[in-house]
Amino acid sequence: DLADPRSVAAAVAEAGRRFGALHGVVHTAGTYGERTFRVLAETGREELAWHLRRVRALFALEQALAARLAGAADLDFVVLVGSLATAVGGLAYGAYTAANLALAAFAEERRRAGSALPWIALDWDVWRFESESDEITRARADLAALAMSPREGEDAFRRAVAAAPTADRLLVSTEDLAARRAQRRERIAGRAGSAASRAGAERHPRPALATPFVAPESDLERRIAGVWQELLGFDRVGADDNFFELGGDSFVAVCTASRLKDELDVELPVARLYEALTVRALARLVDEAGAADEQRVVRLEELREAKSRRRDVIARRRERTGVGSGAR
Q: For 47, left (φ over 0), alpha (ψ -120 to 50), or beta?
């Protein structure tokens, strides 16, 4: 348990027994996959806990290292692995970005306070592994173009280690960072009110896609396709058309989740949309979500009935024994 100081202290001690001197530490505890992607409206206590755990783990690591190394004179680096989202942001990455910023602030504050531990925050771009290349490209072509290869990541890490004695934070961007930030600001400004302005606007012909047009079949598919048509501005959307090939992005995904909630009365986290990039796949996902909701409702009703029966049994037992009626 990385958030438990005793567990981390035991791990540090075991490393010392197995390898002798400890020369460097890499802190990679974090939140990955679907959990990184949540709009603030979907972020509650449970979702915040996913991200706060990595911050608690950092305090546990500091405590364990201080106790074990007594000044840490032998440590060359303590690298806190974070994300470039701290510099460029990202729609629906609010809590995730805040947790990464907490790590960067920790390293800056400890170095400023004269800590003997060589803390350095390494906020870098997304990685692209060979096994994930097609998956990233399919979901986010723009992100795939920016992703680092393992070799590039290795080079960035070596530079971070070399900079540890003097720097408290490094940003690693595969493209000009200032240009990326300017482009993001322009996109945000351009998106303001764009979804609302598309409602009732003239629709454009469906673009030429590699996927042939297949009309949505079920009522649910037609309703989902209608939402996509309105938000993307097309006169028709096929059941097998890919959301991103139609020009969708994270902003439109957030709008889509909100509209589907209103249209279909179903709770569908934005991150789940990335698991179903066609109308047909999304319809299946909505069906599954609806079935799961029904099962939860039935289970809650069963629990309420069971509690009610138990209260009745207790009440009858009290009546028979005179408990609560003043009888001795």
A: alpha
| Residue 65 Rama label (left phi>0; alpha psi -120 to 50; beta) | alpha
Q: Give strand pairing partners of 83.
A: 124
Q: Which helix (H) or strand (E) holds 170?
A: strand 169-172
Alpha-carbon distance of 288 to 9, in angstroms, equals: 43
Cα distances from 66 to residues 116, 189, 209, 260, 264, in angstroms, run: 9, 47, 58, 51, 54
Q: Residues 6 or more apart from 300 whose CB is under 8 A from it?
A: none
State both tokens at 282.
């999304």
The 10s digit of each residue's pLDDT in 252-288 is 888 888 888 888 777 777 777 777 889 999 998 888 8
d(CA 16, CA 22): 6
What is residue 124's three-state secondary structure? strand
**Angle in degrees, CA 84, 147, 126, rounded to 5:** 35
* Mode of pairing for the β-strands spanning 119-124 and 169-172: parallel
Beta bridge partners of 196: none
Amino acid at 121: A
264/222 Cα distance (integer angstroms): 12
- The residues that bridge with 24 in the sheet, in sequence order, are 77
Please state, as a whole number, how many other Cβ atoms lie within 10 Å of the Cβ of residue 278.
23
33 or 222: whose pLDDT is higher?
222
Q: Which of 61-65, 106-110, 130-134, 162-166 shows the lowest mean pLDDT across its residues? A: 130-134
187: CB partners within 8 A, 6+ apart: 251
CA angle 200–204–208, rounded 5-degree value: 150
Please report, to the nearest 10 degrees, the dihedral formed by the alpha carbons of residues 119, 125, 127, 133 taken in order.
170
32 φ, ψ to 5°?
A: -130, 165
Q: Answer whether 58's CB lies under 8 Å from 106's CB.
A: yes
Token readout for 24 is 């460097």
* Contact predicate 87/176, CB 8 Å: no
